[in-house]
Amino acid sequence: MGLKETQAYQFLKFTNLSLKNLGFREALVSPSPPFKEYQNTTKIKLSVEKFPPTPNFFEILSKRRSKRGYKKNPLSLREIALLCFSAQGVTGIAEPYLLRTAPSAGALYPIETYLAINYSYEIEPGIYHLEVKDFSLALLKKGYMGKILSELALGQAFLASASIIFIWSAVLSRTISKYGSRGLRYIFMDVAHICQNVLLASEALGLKACPVGAFFDEELNKFLELEEGESVIYIATVGK
Ligand SMILES: Cc1cc2nc3c(=O)[nH]c(=O)nc-3n(C[C@H](O)[C@H](O)[C@H](O)COP(=O)(O)O)c2cc1C
């Protein structure tokens, strides 16, 4: 099969913008709420009132490497809060938008952050959802999930020894309702900004991190009990 026959090539071409198709609209997709909030569950408040001193920004850039050798060491609540802030901390309000540390096409913020806590001093192991509006972690499932997540990531063992695992999903209709299929490009750009923030913040805090794109999509969606239209698109491990 030649490149032109691949779905990747055809998607890129189909979603090209040109003067000819600027007014063209695909079938309408209804928008969905701008962020998810879980009710009736334990919430752990996060806070980043004071930022810690860190190495020079350009040193951080030169030192960042994907690191997978973790020693099951716990992270502090403060470290976890700083990493969550780097991912999706709210840094401004432009009604009705909650502006964040990472940019987002059309300020539509299609990405949801889930966090598996494997080893932490203050937070018990489990799966949490990052509630962007009140900057807290909502408990979804109790217990150490590192082993299951490692299996869901094609058996990549380092997920089991990471202190925490970021799992990012996309709520497709938030962005697709405005941009059509081209919005899928933006969704992947959005998540990459978020992930890079976390990778650099990890380096700044003297932690090790690795992005992960290989996982069993449907099984992971089911594990997180995501609804139709929301799908996991990226993962990152952080540890010591
Ligand atoms: C989109 C993407 C997906 C990746 N998926 C994985 C993965 O599933 N497992 C893994 O060990 N590393 C993964 N990596 C890390 C790459 O292997 C790594 O970035 C690359 O080897 C370059 O090394 P560096 O990050 O240390 O500079 C991924 C990186 C990116 C950007």
Automatic annotation (TrEMBL):
GO terms for molecular function: oxidoreductase activity. It comes from the Bacteria. PANTHER family: NITROREDUCTASE MJ1384-RELATED. InterPro entries: Bacteriocin_Proc_Enz (IPR052544), Nitroreductase (IPR029479), Nitroreductase-like (IPR000415), SagB-type_dehydrogenase (IPR020051). This is Dehydrogenase. Keywords: Membrane, Transmembrane, Transmembrane helix. Gene3D superfamilies: NADH Oxidase (3.40.109.10). It comes from Thermodesulfobacterium geofontis. The lineage of its organism: Bacteria, Pseudomonadati, Thermodesulfobacteriota, Thermodesulfobacteria, Thermodesulfobacteriales. Residues 62-240 form the Nitroreductase domain. The chain crosses the membrane at residues 152-172.
